[in-house]
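[audit] Reproducing an earlier prediction to check determinism. Same input, same settings, fresh worker. If the tokens differ from the archived copy the diff job will pick it up downstream; this log only records the rerun itself.
[audit] input (503 residues):
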Amino acid sequence: MAEYRLEMKGVSKSFPGVKALDKIHLKVRPGTVHALMGENGAGKSTLMKCLFGIYKMDEGEIYLDGEKMSILNPDDALHKGLAMVHQELQPIPDRTIAENMYLGRYPLISYGPIKVINHKKMNEEAAKWLENVRMPYDPKAKLGSLSIAQMQSVEIAKAVSMSAKVVILDEPTSSLTDNEVEALFRIVRDLKSRGVSLIYISHKMAEIREIADDITIMRDGTYVGTWEVKDISDDEIVRQMVGRELTNVYPPKELSNSDEVLLEVKDLCSIFDRSFQHVSFKLKRGEILGFGGLVGAQRTELMEAIFGMRHVKSGEVIMNGKPIHVTRPRDAIRDGIGMITEDRRGTGILGCLSIADNVSISSLNNYLKVGPMLDVGKIENLVKDNVAKLSIKTPSSKTLIQSLSGGNQQKVIIARWLANNPDVLIMDEPTRGIDVGAKYEIYQIMISLAKQGKGIIMISSEMPELIGVSHRIEVMCDGKITGEVSGEEATQENIMGLATKFN
């Protein structure tokens, strides 16, 4: 048996204007979880796409169990024992679980010259593999009826059904609750005990400590090194990832001295009884106001209502001392409110458009030349200024935003709102799925905006982040604000107590 289940040697990959990978090495031992870490844009996902046949390597070699392999495409990768569960799942929700698992390889039955899908065999086989990963769902159920975590389990069952030797998990817990993460880890440990090797891409240090055996760190498309997890500290991991000392996780925040109320929400009620009800709070000028709570606390729904994405039954929103009437996002933007949504891919970026288009789209009225004609030169200058200001890594403003890393996509969305210059910026999980270096940069942007007199509302499920960045924290539970903490009262214990305070 080969010492390594998988070896990638000297892998390089370039795109127009940028070298994404420069002679990368990766060695994965049999029956281990191998963490792959690095800042956003370090090349982790690109390397895995080269391994899985989505991208063609410019140079390099791949060995599986000591045998040199040439991976032509994802289908070829699957048949050679490689499987990949992508960060952004691409399910077919209206088809059954079994149909999604056997897509492109349906078992067939012949009736003379005619071949049809053998649904009975497919459903029986799917049920067996789902049971194999201890997720006994009904294979005839629509995939769209499952949660994101359950869909990931189906993808893993699909990998197991193809006798995968290596399973790649790309940011698998970015949208999961704690209970769902535990279920995923149970599956990972089970696969590992059977000799399957797993490559685990994550930015979450606690997860790496709990689940991984080895770690490879990448930086700016280059190979930094490989360690056993037990032999490297968290601080050293961060230093190797960012290439510099990061002495503080959170930048120093300056207390807002202003008592001027920028935004006031009074007794706001959703049209749905089970959503937020009778919510009131104030946001001061120059303040970062955190919103904490558990999944289902209705924080996102509340902010979407303030931004005009949801209807309200009653209540009042006041900006700069004047009541405003917001029924759609356009109204909120007009009144000086911007919002960075939680689902970056689904409701944030416009993936098929360029960086320039994504930055300017909410402020195009400011760049009209004659009638409906746009001043392209001014837009280009706006984009260049914001790309430089936010240190967005991109070869060109014409680059499609979907080709950027998660952290750089998030910076482009922030740039969109900087261009629109809102008084209030709502940021829903602004650092989800991005690395520690990019997080620090986004915190600095938030603090800088607050110093300029803007009001920032930040929803975060990470309590250390809430405490480290916010001036005050409103805590929600079951659609209601159950308390406010600040200063020395802003502890994880106090926040959790309020987050579980059902009325």
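[audit] rerun output stored. Observation attached for the diff report: The chain has a mean pLDDT of 85.
[audit] end
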